[in-house]
Specification:
Layout (H helix, E strand, L loop, with lengths): L6 H9 L5 E2 L10 H7 L4 H5 L12 H8 L10 E4 L2 H12 L5 E6 L3 H11 L2 E5 L1 E3 L2 E3 L2 H7 L4 E7 L11 H13 L3 E5 L23 E6 L12 E5 L2 H11 L8 H11 L2 H25 L4 E2 L8 E6 L4 H12 L1 E2 L1 E2 L9 E5 L5 H14 L2
Parallel strand pairs: 1-13, 3-4, 3-7, 7-8, 8-9
Antiparallel strand pairs: 2-10, 5-6, 9-10, 11-12, 12-15, 14-15
Helix pairs in contact: 4-10, 5-6, 5-9, 11-13
The chain binds pyridoxal-5'-phosphate.
The site of pyridoxal-5'-phosphate (PLP) has 12 residues, from helix 5.
């Protein structure tokens, strides 16, 4: 059966490995296996001795224990390790939804959250973030209008891709209260948690706050290790967990053994890895602030409150055409807003990469050359 194109990945596939200046990626700068092992003071021989058999479907006990320790109330049994973070969205939606299930999705949204929900249920309500001068806002009144006692699932993502939006604690509480009152499940994508500009803004994980929350996290963004493809879900409800793992037997059966081992090493230095990403983002955001101040006619700069990305207004007839031309003519990759369901006058910038300064300079030369 037809499913909508995964526009973000299709766009990246065109340019990601051939374009020198990556200015729109959402992941943070990665490192080599050697750097990771050295940073964690891990023993290489442990890795060399690792046997390459299947691992346990819910995830290796050591990794599940390391993941559980990131939360306040989560036990290792409640953790399901994934073949990739992306898989967690698939498994959750497969296990929770059937044709006709009502789903509310905060938009814009990472493609699969919206497209897959729509593909399975055919009954999705979009809940748009509101743009306001210099940022974004959650419209809780609109959520109250959309939700009913028949709503099966609400899907959110904080810190948010692509806007960099993060609600404050009171708004997050109000959101949980609305979802709880209607008895709906909540899929809370926390892939960028830990990347708050002000650490005091960090929200509690939904896993520690709501029994019907399914939370998604992983090592791709905050921890800069997307090549490990390590992600996890926290699922409190045993029946839902069993249903998810049954779906997992149809996708990956279990995670990759080397990735699980390296992920366990990485979670031993989780704060160090997150601090490295946060400081890179902070440096790059300083450059971005100055850049956008120099081009006020061209961009509507909406700085992120958290995460590694921002959705910036672009003064061009079509952001999509503009981004294709920019990649071809200047070798600079920005992501057009429509890939993530945003309007065609917006582009996503990413601030997590070490090459950001050089990429921004290349972009500025291009802007200057066009007058
Ligand atoms: C909000 C969000 N969730 C999930 C994912 C999937 O992560 P991964 O590509 O590591 O599977 C992404 C990737 O960009 C994302 O932005």
């Amino acid at each position: 059966m037809h499913i909508a194109p995964f526009a973000t990945e299709q766009y990246f596939n065109l340019y990601e490995f051939s374009t020198p200046h990556i200015l729109g990626a959402s992941d943070c700068e990665t490192m080599s296996v050697g750097e990771l092992l050295r940073l964690a003071q891990a023993n290489v021989d442990d890795l060399l001795d690792l046997r390459l058999g299947y691992t346990e479907s819910p995830g290796s006990p050591a990794l599940r224990a390391a993941v559980a320790s990131l939360y306040k109330t989560v036990t290792p049994d409640e953790v399901v390790v994934l073949g990739a973070p992306e898989e967690g969205i698939y498994l959750t939606l497969r296990a929770l939804l059937e044709p006709g299930s009502h789903v509310i999705v905060l938009t814009p949204a990472y493609d699969s959250m919206l497209n897959l929900a729509d593909h399975i249920s055919g009954h999705v309500s979009r809940w748009p973030l509101r743009v306001q001068p210099g940022g974004w806002a959650l419209d809780l009144d609109e959520l109250e209008r959309l939700i009913t006692t028949d709503t099966r699932l609400v899907i959110v993502n904080f810190p948010h891709n692509p806007t960099g939006y993060l609600p404050d604690a009171a708004e997050f509480d109000a959101l949980l209260d609305i979802v709880r009152r209607h008895g709906a499940w909540l899929l809370c994508d926390e892939m960028y948690r830990g990347l708050e500009r002000n650490p005091a803004d960090r929200l509690p994980s939904a896993a520690d706050r709501y029994e019907r929350a399914v939370t998604l996290s992983g090592l791709s963004k905050t921890y800069g290790l997307p090549g490990l493809r390590t992600g996890w879900l926290v699922v409190h409800d045993p029946a839902l967990r069993a249903a998810l793992i049954n779906w997992k037997h149809y996708t990956t059966i279990c995670a990759s053994a080397p990735s699980e081992a390296l992920a366990t090493v990485a979670l031993g230095i989780d704060e160090q890895l997150a601090t490295r990403s946060r400081s890179l983002i902070a440096d790059n955001l300083e450059l971005a602030d100055a850049f956008f101040a120099r081009w006020p006619e061209m961009f509507d700069w909406r700085p992120p409150r958290a995460g590694s990305v921002a959705l910036v207004g672009l003064n061009a007839p079509s952001a999509t055409d503009y981004c294709h031309a920019l990649a071809r003519e200047a070798g600079v990759l920005l992501l057009p807003g429509p890939c993530l369901g945003a309007d065609d006058h917006s582009v996503r910038f990413g601030f997590g990469r070490a090459g950001f300064a050089a990429a921004l300079a290349a972009y500025e030369r291009y802007l200057e050359s066009r007058g």
